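Need tokens for this chain, all 123 residues.
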Amino acid sequence: MGEIPTPDRNNITIMHDGGDISITKSEGVLKILGKKYSLLIIGILGNNTAMSFNDIKKSVGCPRSNLLSLRLKEMSNAGIMKRNVMDSHPVSVKYSLTENGKELRENLIPLFKWIECNCYPKL
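Here are the structure tokens for all 123 residues:
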């Protein structure tokens, strides 16, 4: 019997349209996207030009401020969103998608549509 080859952790690929796509480089972003609220935040931020922390918190239904803060920081560090500190009194912070974040959101729209058509209300 043939043995199943050990995956090469340096080059994880998926096959698509007759070719291989290396996803090793995107592993960090995939880990962020797989975390709670990340996809919701990206989806909702794309509906607006910029949102405050509290508006994002209400929109995604995140009960813990520290968890939302962590997600926003992770996505900011990954270049998906940006944090803009407004020069006002009191200081105001607005979050928005970067160009890469907008492109990511556009590519996630088919996933959101698939979920809406195939998973609700089944889950």
